[in-house]
Design brief:
This protein has 107 residues and is an all-alpha fold. The protein has six helices and no strands. The protein folds into two domains: 47 residues, Orthogonal Bundle (Arc Repressor Mutant, subunit A), CATH 1.10.10.1410; 48 residues, no CATH class.
Amino acid sequence: MEYVYAAMLLHKAGKKVDEAHVKKVLEAAGVKTDAARIKALVAALDDVNIDEAIEKAAVAAPSAAPVAASAEAAQGEAPAKAEAKKEEVKEEKKEEEAAAGLGALFG
């Protein structure tokens, strides 16, 4: 994950996201670098519009409210309503995972 963070930091600073810059950022943070992972990251981001990817990921982020709603359901609503809310939360989670953006590229 720190590799993706390094790329995002470079992008936010207006620097080119290339192997040398990513390596410098990681080393400055005290992270042991892996040249193959850096090369894969840079290659994967080559044709990606990072601003657009961040914007899409930001749209999927607000999912705390449905989780809170399912917690309330478990504390006293009718079982049918609670089950329906659980299904809704599962569907929203699947959508969120599908729109995970850059995070889905690197495991």
